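Re: beginner question about structure tokens

> Can someone show what the tokenized structure looks like for a real chain? I only ever see the sequence side.

Sure, here's an example I had lying around. Input first:
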Amino acid sequence: MSLLTCLALSTPGILGVPALLGPPQEGASLQGTGWTVLGERFSPRRPIRRVAERGYGWLQAQGDVLERTRSGEKSELDTLEPEGTGTLYELAADPAGLVFVAAENGLFVLSPEVDVLDRVEVLDGAPPGSPTSVFVDEERRVWYASETAFGCIDPSFYHGRTIPVPGPGPYRIVGNGRYGIDVAGAEAEWRYRPGVGRAPRLDRVSRDGTELAAEQLLELDFGEPIHLTAEGVGSSELVPRYRVDRHHKWLALENGVDVEIEPGEHLLEVVLTDRDLRLSEPFPLRLRVAYPFYYRKAFVLGAGALCAVLVFLFFHAIGRRARLPGSHAIVSTVLVLVLGLQTLAGLVPHGRGWPFIGYSMYTTSLDVGHLAYNGILIGLTAKDRPRQIHIGALGVAADNRWQVLGPLIRDGEATNHAAIEKYNRERPTWIPIRRLQVWAERTRLTEGGPVPVAQLILSDHALPATEEEDA
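And the corresponding structure tokens:
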């Protein structure tokens, strides 16, 4: 082992690891870091280049080609990236049904329902560099190593954490299993065990140096920035995140809360995440965002009345010159006001209904590469065959789909198991479902038109296996 590596592992403060007496011995523990030194040896495991697709067939990586085999027939899968995938290094099956691919040109994702590889656009905290290897654990965290870094990302939203390795790279994952994830560097091999040490706990949230109480009401003007700091304890460096109105996506708090929160009352929750993407208990705050003056009913009605008078006087003057009947000015005024207010509603975003008959005049311009999302509910049978389920099948009254899908994503096993049992109980002649998943189907816009790509699986819950299934 090199002198640099010995110093890094035996000197306090270097590379952020505690001191050891002399060079690391096989099995020595770097206490509190989650790392164990395995020594100057490397596992013989070869990269996994062949995996089973959920209930369908096989995927095989050969050079820069990903081959799919179904019912004895083989096909080559393409990607939407102009430069392609480059060399395919390793495949990793997600327990929920996706497949992640470590490739020369990035990390890619594929699902059995689509025919193209889509490159994962990793977000804040994710390990930098092109992945050399990849692994998905039972909690669906996607672990990968690159030449310069090691860490994990959330499989649904792709934010992550980069975890310092106690030695130089390039790195690759060379083994994994119930005891942890084995990572090889340039001169040694280590085992990383997720979840070592205290889970994150959020103790206080402050705004401009003033500590806030849980459920405290913050009065805000529309567009007013909110800068919060969160403090707590945990086994690793903690990163604060937040969500509004129990959205399923936790956003980075580093640059403040999104100032475009719509007027009205909202629930803001703050958490701390550790390097293994464990969350603290949410710290709740209430927001009351004031309507700007141009959203208020008095202003809208007053401005509308003034415009009506001016428009009426204008058409009345024209009518008198042209000797038109008095009804002409009234009809013309009504038509102009309706058209004008509808155009205004299409141009100016608003947080509540305008006081006139309405229909959408919003238009959207989409660029090549844009992703469109569609949330759906999926049930899977014991043979992992997916079945789309109408949200009304769960018997929940709701104004929109996310009022049904949201609790399934957030509220855990009990809520999902109850939904599965209710669905099966009301359909005794159907093949029962054993798992319930919430998908965000995705379609990427290309120059040749929209192309379906791998969905985000926002939640995945299965009933406990029966004795027959275990057998």
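Each token stands for a local structural state, so reading them left to right follows the chain. Helices lie at 3-10, 297-322, 326-347, 402-410, 412-425, 467-470.
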